[in-house]
Amino acid sequence: MKLEKIKKDSAKKIDSLEMPESIRTPGRTWTRYPEEVIDIEDIEQVEPDVEAEGDVEFFTGEEAFEKAGKKFFDLIKSDENKLNAVHAANINALIYAEVSGEAELHIQYENDGPVLSHLIVDAKDNADLTVTEETESEEFNSSFTEIYVGENASVEYGVVEKPGNFSYSRRKAITQKYGKINWLNGMFTGDLNRTKIETVLKGDNSETEQTGVWYPTREQHHDISLHVRHIGDNTKCDMDSRSVVDHKARSLYEGLQKVEEKAVDTSSFQDQETLMLSDKAESDASPKLMIEDPNVEASHAAAAGTIEKAKQHYLESRGLNNEQAERLVVKGFFEPVMREIEVPRVKNSIREEVERKLDEKRSE
Predict the structure, then answer these.
(1) First and final CA of the chain: distance in angstroms?
(2) Has residue 166 been placed in a domain?
(3) Of 209, 152, 162, which is closest to residue 343 (Cα–Cα)?
(4) How far apart are CA 241 and CA 109, in angstroms?
(5) What is the spatial distance between Cα 90 and Cα 77, in angstroms, rounded to a whole number?
(6) Is 38 a domain residue?
(7) Number of folded domains in the chain?
(8) Which helix (H) or strand (E) holds 270?
(9) Does 234 map to a domain?
(10) Whole-prediction pTM
(11) pLDDT at 272
(12) Is 352 helix (H, G, I), strand (E, B) or coil?
């Protein structure tokens, strides 16, 4: 099947599909999607800027489609929902990467119009890859990432999303024996961001870390889901995410750890914390466990709170004004997660975005 036929078939399905699910509470659906994203006309191709080092081959466009074969839309289905179909019908930046040893891959997409990027990574047995993506777009941005982690392979993935008015991201990996995939997702810009990251720990002794950092302000709405599915024996997962919410912004989090019946000796932990800087900001979290095998070590937790008055008074008693004290608390709040980030390019980008947010507030 040709890429153009997949695009045409997906376009025909758009009207019949539903929007992605989001957290619902009585009387309220938290994430409302704009209708205008469906009508993408005269989309132009985007030529990504790719930096590659080490044992990696990459392909773009039609060649990427041919090389990826059945891996294209295998982990993430094109007809799962309306936005997946929109993405499939309008992809304008497609990359397939094959990794056989130690390698680094950095991909940058930049366009004044929409960017609908799709990255497929095949990390062969014993491969060791660090991969980052960076997108700058003034309009709709969809970013799909499918990663295959071979036996004893290791992948570090990082992205700091810089979309325009609306961003929709899907990322999913599947691991073989002793495989490891670590995700880092940062969100700071854009009016509406919806991101879902999934890992299928299929191979025995495989593991994942999923880290999310986001900081919506003003009228921004950030909605992130982290999911893991334990299938193999002795698999491990650690989800750790932090958000700061200010002004009238909204933060949504959904986490799911699913342990299959045959997955023995599983370790799975989930923690999400939110710092509220305004009484007009909103936050909701839904951490969940689905366990079919009782032989598991697992926990989940979520918390939201404001700056402790005792902490603020202590800082102000040391000569800091209110703005300086808040600035110090915000940086300290992110620090436990920042210490765990092993991709310098992404860590630096997150620090810059946090500084930018704090500077914006100081200039109000």
Answers:
(1) 54
(2) yes
(3) 209
(4) 25
(5) 15
(6) no
(7) 1
(8) strand 266-276
(9) yes
(10) 0.95
(11) 94
(12) helix
CA separation for the pair 216, 191 (Å, rounded) = 9
- When pLDDT is cut at 50, 70 and 90, the band that residue 339 belongs to is confident
Distance CA 91, CA 72 (A): 12
In angstroms, the CA 176 to CA 101 distance is 16
Q: List Cα–Cα distances, 153 to 205, 272, 346, in angstroms.
A: 12, 28, 21
Question: What are 252-305's pLDDT values in tens digits?
Answer: 999 999 999 989 999 999 999 999 999 999 999 999 999 887 778 888 888 888
Domain that residue 260 falls in: 3-29+43-306
**Mean pLDDT, residues 28-42 taken together:** 79
Distances (CA, A) of 309 to 306, 312, 316, 317: 9, 5, 10, 12
The Cα 257–Cα 240 span in angstroms is 13
Other Cβ atoms within 10 Å of 213 Cβ, number? 24
- Average model confidence (pLDDT) across the chain: 92
What is the Cα–Cα distance from 214 to 208, expressed in whole angstroms? Answer: 20
For residue 316, which phi and psi values (nearest 5 degrees)?
-70, -30
Asked if 261 and 291 count as a contact pair (C-beta separation under 8 A), the reply is no
For residue 130, the tally of other CB atoms under 10 A from its CB is 22
Helical residues (DSSP H) of the chain, grouped into ranges:
3-13, 61-68, 82-90, 309-317, 322-338, 344-362
Task: Kindly compute the dihedral angle of the four CA atoms of residues 108, 111, 114, 115, in this order, to the nearest 10 degrees.
Answer: -20
In whole angstroms, give the CA distance from residue 141 to residue 116: 6
What is the CA 39 to chain-centroid distance, rounded?
25
SS3 306: strand
Assign residue 27 a region (left: φ > 0; alpha: ψ between -120 and 50; beta: otherwise). Answer: left
Nearest CA to 146 out of 205, 197, 180 is that of 197
Q: Which distant-in-sequence residues (6+ apart) come within 8 Å of 38 by Cβ?
A: 14, 82, 86
Domain contains 338: no
